[in-house]
Design brief:
About 30% of the residues lie in helices and about 15% in strands. It is an alpha/beta fold. The strands form five sheets. Strands 1, 2, 3, 4, 5, 6, 17 and 18 form an eight-stranded mixed β-sheet that branches. A five-stranded parallel β-sheet has the order 7-16-8-9-12, with helices on one face. It starts with 5 loop residues before the first strand and ends with a helix.
Length: about 550
């Protein structure tokens, strides 16, 4: 029985991977992370398109496990830009001393569990093989960029970009004709920026989406000075609120509120900006009649903003209740369509026939373009995992196991895949909460379990019965909401051929944390804990000499 190279391998160096590495190192585990990108930040490393910005306020979208980090970092805006978030990730990585434990520019292509040694053999695109006891995925929920299969796409002679894989160098759009396919969150952010630079813009809208104004602004010195004093409150809110941070409302039912009072409350939220408008009343997330009143208010704002009535009506969402798809936050999105050089094409009435050498041809017209931007989103929740050939105890790949939809235990583990742990995996709250709060909870929970397994010499594997029960609970939580009324990426509806299963847990982060913590208190109920075949010497041994790694891997480690 050979030794392991590392106690733990982490896949990904975004916020989840960085925090996981830091905690592993603090607790004496030997570890290494492999990251496809050339730097830290995860989805923020890749999302460099103009206008990229977080839709959670900066003072909430940050780590809370380190009081000094929270005190010392000074955010500049209410909603941070992509570059500022990358700087924050880089600052944390340097502060935590984890950069030397990350191999950049290296994609993990496969990982196979070896039942004879109770270890994982991890393989990278460069041919490096590394053996570990624990495999932890920190690949992100929205990192597997998706480009639709459109006839003729490869023929296009102009420049092509995906918002989730935007070039690091500036893209010159001056004087160019730009087409944008997709009007989800990324499209809604990038379109105003493109319109400010390009000579002509054609927006190909697949689905009209609800969006609310950000009302972004610089943070004041008074706000920044007061923030250290709010630390304990924020930590408490992380575990006691549905989203992991406070989202205040009126505490009233919209159906029981007089029209004038209702309108005034929504106007105040609209003027304040951000997604908090959906929490103004208590019943808009669970009652269709109540939701329709909120949706009509936002539809009215769209009509008030867009001067051309026909364009306004095409931009008004009608096929889903507000909040059942990701609610977008924008800076001038609807105003953009008042510009003479911006045109909206509704693909539901004018579908794309093909992409030609010089542009896009629909059923009704041809649109000559110099640049084509895909703002078409991601294979969310599962894509980043199933694109890796992860093979479990019985030799069946994870992608095969999940053909009919992902099943996990707590979003943290998968039956048949011992010692594999998925940070913010399907079946956890993920994007239905503040993902930084979800990450911190998962990292803490996984770290505690690993310490337990190290002390006992055991292997942990989710039990099939517990996994099936949790999958039912995820479905039941979603059934108590309005989410099933929308074809969203929460269901995998944006990916042709993907099973339609509601993937995140919709019961709230506070409830979810309570469930996970109860599982731990009950001796990790729902996990089969069995003795590993690894020797105690191998379990405690530090990583093998760097000479055990390939020269390619070594050079990339040194570059990190």
């Amino acid at each position: 029985m050979g030794d392991v190279d590392y106690d733990a391998i982490v896949i990904g160096a975004g916020f989840a991977g960085l925090h996981m590495l830091s905690e592993l190192r603090k607790n004496g585990f030997t570890c290494r992370a492999f990251e496809t990108g050339g730097g830290v930040g995860g989805t923020w490393y890749w999302n460099r398109y103009p206008g990229a910005r977080c839709d959670i306020e900066s003072l909430d979208y940050c780590y809370l496990h380190d009081r000094e980090l929270h005190r010392d970092w000074r955010w500049t805006e209410r909603f941070a830009t992509g570059p500022e978030i990358r700087r924050y990730a880089e600052h944390f990585a340097e502060r935590a001393g984890v950069l030397g434990s990350i191999t950049f520019g290296t994609r993990v292509t496969a990982a196979a569990f070896d039942p004879t040694s109770s270890t994982w053999l991890v393989r990278t695109e460069h041919g490096t093989e590394v053996r570990c006891r624990f495999l932890i995925t920190a690949v992100g929920c929205v990192s597997a960029a998706q480009i639709p299969d459109i006839t003729g796409a490869a023929r296009f002679r102009g420049e092509r970009f995906h918002t989730g894989r935007w070039p690091h160098e500036p893209v010159d759009l001056a004087g160019k004709r730009v087409g944008v396919i997709g009007t989800g969150s990324s499209g809604i952010q990038v379109i105003p920026e493109i319109a400010a630079r390009a000579a002509a813009v054609v927006v190909f809208q697949r689905t009209a989406n609800f969006s609310v104004p950000a009302r972004n602004r610089p943070l004041t010195e008074a706000e920044l000075a007061a923030e250290p004093g709010r630390y304990e409150e924020r930590v408490a809110l992380a575990s006691t609120t549905r989203f992991g941070h406070v989202v205040s409302g009126t505490g009233q039912s919209i159906l029981d509120t007089e029209p004038a009072e209702r309108e005034a409350a929504l106007e105040r939220r609209w003027a304040a900006g951000g997604t908090g408008i959906v929490a103004t009343f208590t019943d808009t997330g669970r009652d269709l009649e109540a939701n329709a009143l909120l949706a009509d208010f936002v539809r009215g704002k769209i009509r008030d903003t867009v001067t051309d009535p026909g364009t306004a009506e095409r931009l008004v969402p009608r096929d889903h209740p507000i909040g059942t798809k990701r609610l977008c936050v924008d800076s001038g999105y609807f105003d953009t369509f008042n510009a003479d050089h911006v045109r909206l094409v509704d693909l539901r009435t004018e579908p794309i026939d093909e992409i030609t050498e010089d542009g896009v041809r629909t059923e009704h017209a041809s649109y000559p373009l110099d640049v084509l931007v895909y703002a078409t989103g991601y294979d969310a929740f599962t894509g980043a995992l199933t694109r890796i050939e992860i093979t479990g105890r019985d030799g069946v790949p994870l992608a095969k196991r999940w053909e009919s939809g992902p099943e996990t235990y707590l979003g943290l583990a998968v039956a048949g895949f011992p010692n594999l742990f998925t940070i913010t995996g399907p079946g956890s709250t993920t994007v239905l909460s503040n993902v930084l709060r979800a990450i911190e909870h998962h990292v803490s929970w996984i770290t505690d379990l690993l310490r337990h397994l190290r002390s006992t010499g055991e292997v942990a594997e989710a039990e099939q019965e517990a996994q099936e029960d949790w999958t039912r609970q995820v479905a039941e939580a979603a059934s108590r909401t309005l989410y099933h009324h929308a074809d969203s990426y929460y269901l995998g509806a944006n990916i042709d051929g993907k099973a339609r299963v509601f993937m995140p847990y919709a019961g709230g982060l506070d409830v979810y944390r309570g469930i996970c913590d109860a599982v731990a208190r009950d001796g990790y109920r729902g996990f089969a804990l069995s003795k590993t075949t690894l020797s105690r010497t191998a379990l405690s041994k530090t990583a093998l000499s760097r000479t055990a790694l390939s020269k390619t891997a070594l050079s990339r480690v040194d570059e990190a």
